[in-house]
Amino acid sequence: MACRPPIVDLSDFDRRRSEIQKQLMDAAQGTGFFYISGHGIVQSLIDEAYGQADSFFQLPHDAKDRLPKVDWAACKVRGYELNNLTDGTLHESMMQAFDVHEDMEGAWPPESMLPDYRATTVAFMQAMHPVAQRILSCFATGLGFSPDFFEKMTDISSPENHTFLQYHKYPSTEGLKWKPGTNRITAHTDESLITLLHIGPGSMLSDGLLKSNYHRVRMPLPGEPQGDRYSMGYFVWPALHDKLQGKSGKTSATTMAEYMKQKGKIFSYSFSPDIDTYEKSQQYAFGPPQIESAA
Ligand SMILES: [Fe+2]
User: Where in this chain does the record put each Non-haem dioxygenase N-terminal domain (predicted)?
Assistant: First the structure.
């Protein structure tokens, strides 16, 4: 089922807060997706971040492959991932966290290759975070928590927090043939409290009230642009060991660290290089995708 998410304007936030909260809660209880406008991030910074992503993906494969690999189950979400057609998906991505973790030094591409990459990427993450905070404060009060409920659990100055930015490149499909069922990114739900994608919210703390819906990045259809495509996703995580439980207590309490131990196994399964296993992972781990997007 394809549908078009609503556009929520965040401008003049303090004065329009109750109106914005209603729009966000309606969207999150509906499709679980919404576009935002009036976010206040200057276009030049967005352009610079896309420029750095482009420069990164143009590095030789060996240079990218020397970077750490993401370990989802251990919540180490930084490093390079390549998913080629043999995985049943087609994209490459680079994930980067804030510089509060002890092992970040080797997680950035060398300055000698990309002199401004680290500074621009950190500046872009720092610009995205207050936008996420405004949205999360609306979800907090909409769910009956205090306005700063999520702010406390998403403190990006704490080593407990593994919020990350992911640069995606979906390579050109011109001239490619692929098996039916191949996607640029397979159907999944996000693990984050909220994802801001330059072009989705979690349900664990809302007792299922807010949707964390299935989505995927499909291959382009005939007549759509077949060239390279980029996107940037900012995934806001709660601190690893904060108790996660909805207001009503209907959902069992957990922590992000425990949750990712389980979800990390599903991620490994879905990125299996075997197409049959991939198809089973669609059937058993994810269910049918409900939203189609060429994000
Ligand atoms: Fe996603």
Answer: 6-90
